[in-house]
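Q: what sequence does this backbone want?
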């Protein structure tokens, strides 16, 4: 029997995931609040659903790639939400970065409705999502994987199965976001110091990316700074949210995270300074007395 798959949220990651599913031979049904984005995707193959409820009624597996827990709640239980329309035994795959206990509670809520749930946050960026090379940190019941696993493998190069109940996937994603946020903040601080000291930015980038101090985030995000391109592939406010979740999780067990707390404050400062919707590399703009590289003609 062919498993019918739907995807909600055609943002930077969701669009690539839908393309990967289509490339694997699936007829992908999609929904996005931006109708024109959904229609543009479907021009090359696919079906646009009129609402989350319509998508839920038509699909055996529904993949949600929205921004946060609140948007996921709306997709499931808001006006024209999909939960009530999904058939018993259908699988809801939750790919947002959320507080782990929220994901645990959501699994129970959907299980009580006869639905299956996979806690499946994602990482890798838009390019890896588009090529099917991203990473998925998942946890869920064996019955859910029995239905959805081929679809997960079509979207991600690495699908880590971290437990048989929700929560483990979100915990690992939160720890990944701790590192990502701290690394971006540290990369921005290092580049800012170099600029303050009069070091040529391109030369500094070349040396660091071939030295022990390099990180994937330095190499990736400081390239945005050199190009003066702050187009939001991942916005400043994403790390205001995600590092906030990191700190909330640690606070609940009274666990100290001094580097995370400092990085969170840096992203908060960038957000309130007017850079909330810019690329997260724009956190470098909080440093005074530096002249950032300008876009080349």
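A:
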């Amino acid at each position: 029997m062919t498993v019918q798959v739907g995807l909600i949220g055609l943002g930077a990651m969701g669009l690539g995931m839908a393309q990967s599913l289509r490339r694997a031979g699936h007829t992908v049904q999609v929904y996005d609040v931006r109708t024109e984005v959904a229609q543009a995707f479907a021009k090359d193959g696919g079906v646009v659903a009129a609402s989350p409820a319509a998508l839920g009624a038509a699909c055996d597996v529904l993949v949600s790639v929205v921004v946060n827990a609140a948007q996921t709640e709306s997709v499931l239980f808001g006006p024209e939400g999909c939960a009530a329309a999904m058939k018993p035994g259908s699988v809801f795959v939750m790919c947002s970065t959320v507080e782990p206990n929220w994901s645990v509670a959501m699994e129970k809520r959907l299980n009580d409705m006869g639905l299956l749930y996979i806690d499946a946050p994602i990482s890798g960026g838009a390019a890896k999502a588009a090529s099917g090379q991203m990473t998925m940190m998942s946890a869920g019941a064996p019955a859910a994987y029995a239905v959805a696993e081929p679809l997960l493998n079509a979207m991600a190069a690495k699908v880590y199965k971290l437990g048989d109940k929700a929560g483990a996937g979100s915990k690992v994603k939160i720890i990944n976001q701790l590192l990502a946020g701290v690394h971006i903040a540290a990369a921005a601080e290092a580049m800012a110091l170099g600029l303050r000291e009069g070091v040529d930015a391109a030369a500094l980038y070349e040396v660091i990316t071939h030295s022990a101090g390099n990180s994937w985030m330095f190499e990736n995000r400081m390239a945005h700074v050199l190009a003066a391109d702050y187009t939001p592939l991942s916005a400043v406010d994403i790390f205001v949210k995600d590092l906030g979740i990191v700190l909330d999780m640690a606070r609940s067990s009274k666990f100290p995270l001094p580097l995370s707390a400092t990085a969170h404050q840096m992203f908060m400062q960038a957000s309130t300074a007017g850079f909330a919707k810019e690329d997260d590399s724009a956190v470098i703009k909080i440093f005074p007395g530096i002249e950032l590289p300008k876009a080349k003609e």
